[in-house]
Structure formats: C-alpha cells, structure tokens
Queue: 3 jobs
Job 1
Amino acid sequence: MKALSEDQQTLLFWLAQHNSVSVCIELCNDIGKIIRGGCRDETNEVTFQRRTLFKLKALGLIKEDIHYIAGIRYLICSISPRGIERVKQTNLLPSGGDNHA
C-alpha cells in the first residue's frame, strides 16, 4: 500500500482516537464548512488541509455517514475498518489503544 504523508498519518491517527470530521453539505451559508468533532481534549485538536481528507477517502481509510445537526445536513467522516487496520500496521496507536469502527 502507498505510504501516507505525515499530514495524512496525523489525521488518520486523530480519527482513530474516536474523533470525526463533519462537512456541511446543505445548500446554506455554511456549505463546505468543516467541523472537527468528538475531541474530548481541546489541546488534541488537529489541523489539516481538505486534500488530506480527500486522499484518505480515496484510499478507503475513512467512512462517511449523513447526519442532521440542528436541521442542517452534514457528512460525518470517521475512520473505516480499513483505516483502523492501516493504523495498526503502521503502529500509530499506542499499545492497548482501542478505537471505533
């Protein structure tokens, strides 16, 4: 499998820590707005470029679900089972680290 950039690895690891990315897909003023969610610790916030998210999607390392937040449609991106396996293979998770899928 193709090697991931440092930014891609960072975002994938962050997603493996029970975090998600929400993208507004509703035709409104917030269309395209990205919200990082699920972070329990504000110091654990991650920054990334959209192309990093696009690449992880293209590689099948994230999954998408549609949710409504305050009546506005968002695409919720979280780590996929394939992404979890990738994290385990590259030893990005601390030993004993659990994640969701």
Job 2
Amino acid sequence: MAVLSSAPQAFARMATLDGDVVSTRKSEHYKYVRVYKKSRTEPNVVKGVYVRQASPGTERNLWNKGPIGSSIKSGSGSKVLKQKLCRREQFHPDPCSTYILNP
C-alpha cells in the first residue's frame, strides 16, 4: 500500500511505500535524494526514482540493497524536481508510490 507524505517544506519532501522512504530536503536545496529501508520485508530491494532539473526527461534510480535500517544518499547535482519510491518484486510488477513534486 502506497502512502504519500509531505512534511513541512522547511524540512523534507518524502514519499513512502510500506514503511520505506525516499526524501529530499529544503535545507539542501533539494539537490540530494535519500532512500531509507525501514520495512521488515527483506530481502526486497528499494529504489528512489527521481528527475533532476538539468535533465527533466531522464528518470534516475538510486538503489538501496542494504539491510533493514540502512540508508543511501545520491550525489549532488541540479535540483531534484520530483521523486518516488519503488520496491523490486520478483515475478511481479514493482509497486511504486506516486511522484512527490518539490517546490
């Protein structure tokens, strides 16, 4: 089940999927993406899918293949325009949240 959440803009913009989170932060000018693996559904792999201002026609992926409780952060670049979270499922379509737009 996908649940959307957007914290106050002073903090972060995030999308969640079954407890896992992808987010960007206003304090970092929305230039980094973080993927947090919080769910208890190992060995599933989660990824943040995001689009940057410098290449609006390109979806980028940031994979978190670590254990529960792990997080991964993208490198810096142009502003992240939008992000969503997906979970890899074998033999089934990958479930994803909807895109969250950054201001």
Job 3
Amino acid sequence: MKRTTENCSLIRKYGDPGHDGDFCFGFVKSEADDEPCEPCRKCGCLELNQESDVEVEE
C-alpha cells in the first residue's frame, strides 16, 4: 500500500500536523527538538523530503 496522509497511523492517532498542498509537515521528535520524528523522516509525504523547485545558483 502506498503511504499517504489518508492512511498514516500517526495522523489517525494524533491528528493532522498540517499540510502545504499535498505535502505533510510531519510530527516533531519533542517540544525541545523540532526535527521530524523517524517515521515522518522516512515518509514520502513529508514536505522536507520533496525536491525543491527553486534553482540554486552555483
């Protein structure tokens, strides 16, 4: 089964962490650590995992 925000066990358990279009903001590790938790880091729906369409000048 493809991982989507509709079938995410964390969203079903804790509620919606927020979205930007089709991409999820994910859940953080703790109040003191704002990095995404491990299940969210591995998820293809996480906004941070999406390639940016902003070009970087070299």
